[in-house]
Amino acid sequence: MTLTDFFAAYPMLLVAISLVFGLLVGSFLNVVIYRLPLMMQAEWTQQCSELLEIENPSKPSETTPSFNLAVPNSHCPKCKHEISALENIPVFSWLFLGGKCRHCQESISARYPVMEACTGIITALVVFQFGFSWLTLAVLFLSWSLIVLTMIDFDHQLLPDDITLPLLWLGLIVNSMGMITSLEEAVWGAIAGYAILWGVYWLFKLVTGKEGMGYGDFKLLAALGAWMGWQALPMIILLSSFVGAVVGLSLIVIKGRDKNIPIPFGPYLASAGFLALLWGSEISEFYYSLVL
User: Fold this and answer.
1) What is the pLDDT of residue 189?
2) Which residues make Cβ contacts (< 8 Å) with residue 42, sequence separation at least 6?
C-alpha cells in the first residue's frame, strides 16, 4: 500500500496530522510576520543612507547580533529570557504558562496562539478539501503566504514584494502543469488582476486626488489571478469589496473610527482569494440560486 492509498483509506488521520503540522507552521509564521517588516525597514534605511551619502546610525557592526528569520532565537521582549523548546509548543505552551513569560511574568499577547490555531485550522481545511497530493502542497504554500500578507498589512499597511512577486511566479509555474487552471488563463489572470486595480487606483486618484490603495494590492490580485485564472477575479473582487465595505462601515459607526484613516485592503483580497480557491463553485451556485 502506497502512502497515497493509506491516506485515502484514512482521510481523517491525514487531516489530524495536518492540523498539528499547521500549528507548527503557524509558530514560524508569527516570526515572519513580526521580523520581515523590521528587516525590510533596516534594508530601506541602509539604502537611503547610501543614496544620501550619510552615515546610517542603525547600520549593524561586527559586534551587532544578526537579525533575520532564523536568529536570534525567540525571547521575551522585556527580560530577554530565551524561550525554550518546551515553552514554544504552539498554543499549549501559552495556555500552560497562563499567557505569561515564565521568567518575569510579563504578559504574552494572545495573538500568537490565535495565529497558530488559525494556521492549523486552515491547513487542515486545505488538506481535507484537496487530499494528499502535490496540489495540496502548493495550495498550502499559497494559504500560508496569504496569512502572512494579511497580518503584515493589518500591522503596517504593507504587502511585501518578497512575498507577492514569488507568489505570482509560483502560481504561473503551478498552472504550467495544469493543476488549477490552464497556463493561458493564469497569465491573463495575472495581467487582468494587476490592470483592474491599477485602473481603479488611478480613476479614484483623478476623481478625489487621494490614493485609495497601494501597489501591493495590485500585485496581490495579480498573484491570485495567476493561481486561479482570470475567471476567478470577479468573485474575488466582489467578495473582498463587500467584506471591506462592511468592516469599514462597522468601524466608523460602532467604534467611531475616522473615515479618513486608511483601511488595508490586502486582508480582504487574501481572504476572498482563499474562499474562492476552496469553495468558489459552491459560492457561485449559491449566488445564482438567489438571483435566478
Assistant:
1) 97
2) 58, 60, 67
Task: Tell me the residue type at 226.
Answer: A
Residue 19, C-alpha cell as written in the block: 492540523
Grid coordinates standing for 175? Answer: 498552472
Q: Cα–chain-centroid distance for residue 126?
A: 15
Asked if 251 and 257 touch (Cβ cutoff 8 Å), the reply is yes
Sign of the C-alpha dihedral computed for residues 158, 23, 241 and 273 taken in this order? positive
Whether the Cβ atoms of residue 173 and residue 226 lie closer than 8 Å to each other: no
Please list the rounded mean pLDDT of every run of 10 residues in the chain (292 residues). Answer: 78 93 96 93 86 73 70 80 84 89 85 95 96 94 97 94 96 96 97 95 88 89 97 94 79 66 86 93 79 66
* Long-range contacts (CB closer than 8 Å, 24 or more residues apart) made by 51-60: none
Integer-rounded Cα radius of gyration of the chain = 21
Query: DSSP for 14-36?
Result: HHHHHHHHHHHHHHHHHHHHHHH
Q: Give, in order, the Cα–Cα distances in Å from 169 to each of 22, 32, 174, 220, 255.
A: 24, 20, 9, 12, 40
Cβ atoms of 233 and 227 closer than 8 Å? no
How much is the pTM? 0.91
Q: What's the DSSP call for residue 54? A: -
